[in-house]
Amino acid sequence: MDQLKNPSIFIGVQGDGIISFGSGQPDLPPPENVFKILPNFRQFKYGLIQGQPNLRKALAKQYECCSSEDNFVITNGASEAIDLIFRVIGKPGDKLLLHKPYYYSYPTLIEKAGLKVVCTETVKGKIDFDDFDKKVRGCRAVLINSPSNPTGRIQEINTLKKIEKLCSDLDITIISDEVYKDLIYERRNYDLKGPHVVTINSFSKTFCMCGLRVGYLWSNDKEIVQKVIDLKTLSSMNTNILAQEMAYEATKTPRSYVDKQVKIWQERRDAIYEGLLKLGLELWKPEGAFYILPKVKNPRKMVWDLYKKHKVITYLGDWFGAPGSIRLSYALDIDKIEEGLKRIGKYLKEK
Amino acid sequence: MDQLKNPSIFIGVQGDGIISFGSGQPDLPPPENVFKILPNFRQFKYGLIQGQPNLRKALAKQYECCSSEDNFVITNGASEAIDLIFRVIGKPGDKLLLHKPYYYSYPTLIEKAGLKVVCTETVKGKIDFDDFDKKVRGCRAVLINSPSNPTGRIQEINTLKKIEKLCSDLDITIISDEVYKDLIYERRNYDLKGPHVVTINSFSKTFCMCGLRVGYLWSNDKEIVQKVIDLKTLSSMNTNILAQEMAYEATKTPRSYVDKQVKIWQERRDAIYEGLLKLGLELWKPEGAFYILPKVKNPRKMVWDLYKKHKVITYLGDWFGAPGSIRLSYALDIDKIEEGLKRIGKYLKEK
User: Fold this and answer.
1) CATH number belonging to domain A33-250
2) ipTM tops 0.85
3) Which CATH number, 3.30.70.2120, 3.90.1150.10, 3.40.50.1170, 3.40.50.1370, labels domain A7-28+255-350?
4) Which of B29, B43, B233 sits opposite A211 (nearest CB)?
């Protein structure tokens, strides 16, 4: 059980009868046109550190409030975008606000960057604006992640608008991790806006391109964008040029592709939500993304035993600042979800 | 001229009659078999953070002193490997020794990681072991880069062996950036060995795959390897899975491919070395890699005017801790080298 210090032991683990509710990777394939460019690809030279112009131009068109492709930086997945922004946003000791539960990589990367983590608790995964208002003062930046990994909850539009105004008044940068913005069951995403908003997104979830590692950030704050480029020049240089061409092809995908996916995710959401409820677990209903965070007893033992005895991968709530719970990704087909639920039911009876 | 604060303004700049002695990217193509896997590639899921097993296995076979593929981590180019190792090697305030001139990214990344840079001066690019011996004491780690970017000089085998022994006695980690190890004109590379050596290499230079971003690090020090994996799990996740398959194909390339390349590099080295000598510049003869670092008057003005008036890109020596010089990469064909030399001659006459 000592090995359960972070998710790295589970990432990439497949096969051998394992049901993985672990890492959040779609099992559905990317749009076929993503692969069409491969046979004729022969480039090998460095690309621009900031990213290929065709891809940045296509992305700039997707955001009403973005003035130019110069505001974008293409990164090795959203992960690198997040790491880079933490590393350039403040000076050592500056505070950064997170809402709890949070994506597991945030706190370690924030601390690695020399910043301090401040947390605002949420009510059933929803930001409590009064607490937010108190905690955000004196922070250099705040990170909003809606829909959330690990809760699948989305923040209320009303709350987001109040956050926009407050942070603008206080001159606090909002980092908006919107990697699940296309996967919402309730409504379209509300894009956070403002002169100092830094938006992070990815091709991994919307277009099922996790392993190809294309993400990006963009901001109307040109100083921040330049700082990110300067650091990426040293820390990794251009993002893989072939993956960027594949991502460019993905930008041509019609909205119906995403709509079809969301319908599938919603069916799966319903299956796992109902299934876990039937097993007697306490839950919040996911409104987006493909995660669910039930409360359980002895979560560490449960994650370990599910893996070792039942070949079911789940993640420990502690990794997400959510002790007393486990996180399940339901990015797998209904049959596997049902089989996984059966095994979880078996574990719950046996223990 | 104010824009000359770092190389990012030049990276990826091509075309329009420009002769670029700037970034060090081979113009020769990768081995053709690298592209052969593309038409049938259909993977899209996360890979192992540490890197694909087939690639790590193939690499482990190339190093006599490596016991296992578990000692490797595949990264987004050597750049990411360097950044990751700096970020995990010490605690804030620890010192890291560099030999001067150094690759431009090192000092900023070291400081970003909270460490302090200590420098040992070199004599014509060669480490002075007595000075090294003095400066290394109290350091957490030392970085050796042979052949060197920006000098093209290699370190004497005798010196390297003394460094191995001293660092082993003092329990100091050696980070050996060997990305040019296959491109040496004088002899085969001497691989630094030891229980605490961290070796960094890349497919960018040997196999001309710069834009595809595949590098790696390996060490017999399992604790360091695990720390790198743990950080990469958060900061970028797996390296692009398609690029790793291409790199795996590259590992099958016969040695004759590299030998052929080295012959071409040597012809180019001779052309630029003789050419710059004829222009009256003071030089050290490059023994490996594809860089040369002539001493010049007013280097900042020279780099700027060469770019703006003569469409020639060169890099400023200051970026490499070598004031009073400029760095030229000669990774371009002889005709372009000759044309570039002509334009440099014109600038030197006019100024």
Assistant:
1) 3.40.640.10
2) yes
3) 3.90.1150.10
4) B43
